[in-house]
Amino acid sequence: MNLPNSITTSRILCVPLLIWMLSPHFPLRGVPGGQELFVAIFFLLAFVTDGVDGYLARKNGQVTTLGTLLDPLADKLMVTAAFIALVQYNPHIVKPWIATVVIGREFLVSGLRSIASSEGFTISASDLGKLKTVIQIVSVIAAVLDHRWQNWYIGWFVFPVDAISVASIYFMAAISVLSAVDYFWAFWSKINHAGESRRKSENALLLAGKQPHP
Questions:
Q1: Looking at residue 25, what DSSP letter applies?
Q2: pLDDT (tens digit per residue) in 144-164
Q3: Contact by Cβ (8 Å): 35, 29
Q4: Residue 105: closest CA among 129, 71, 140
Q5: CA nearest 76: which of 44, 48, 45, 108?
Q6: pLDDT, tens digit (0-9, with 9 covering 90-100), for 159-191
Q7: What pTM, to 2 d.p., does this model score?
Q8: N or C: at which end does the chain have fewer Cβ atoms within 10 angstroms?
Q9: Residue 132 domain boundaries
Q10: pLDDT band, residue 195 (cuts 50/70/90)
Q11: How many folded domains does the chain comprise?
Q12: In terms of C-beta distances under 8 Å and separation of at least 24 residues, what long-range contacts does 67-73 make, across chains too?
């Protein structure tokens, strides 16, 4: 296994660790702000490595089928685990329906991607999908920090943690739905095109078979 794939695999292995960090059994739970800051930094670093493994794979010519499959899987597992844990950790911000929207979207896209692969075509990530990923990172970190702080006071400046948490979570839920619709539309267009191409090929073969041999 090459280095980029090893980094991706390490992200998958960190999923149970993330759930444990957001549980009441985490040792820093009793330290004021300790658990929240630790989890926020951990989650941010996990997604930084997402960019690192992709960069290394492209730079060193180590893009593999395994890596192509594992990379989105690692992202989806990390996000899914985070939102499931946050429903219990900070229910004021992350409602069960929000977690359901996020997880449902990830399953839908994964299913469509599998069908597309079996049909011999791929669907590139859209700008909405990329925006969704960024907003997910922001919303998870904000929801974790909101567990401890409503506001951060930096001198005369007040950083509204709670307001940012609420806004980013609901914006993320909306973008998740929109990006799912966008992905489904791209999938439907391509599968229709693939079906038409297949029918034309079959018709051409039938016509060729009916022509008399010289």
A1: T
A2: 999 999 888 888 888 898 999
A3: yes
A4: 129
A5: 108
A6: 898 999 999 999 999 999 999 998 888 888 887
A7: 0.82
A8: C
A9: 3-210
A10: low
A11: 1
A12: 67/2, 67/4, 67/5, 67/8, 70/5, 70/8, 70/9, 70/12, 71/8, 72/110, 72/113, 73/12
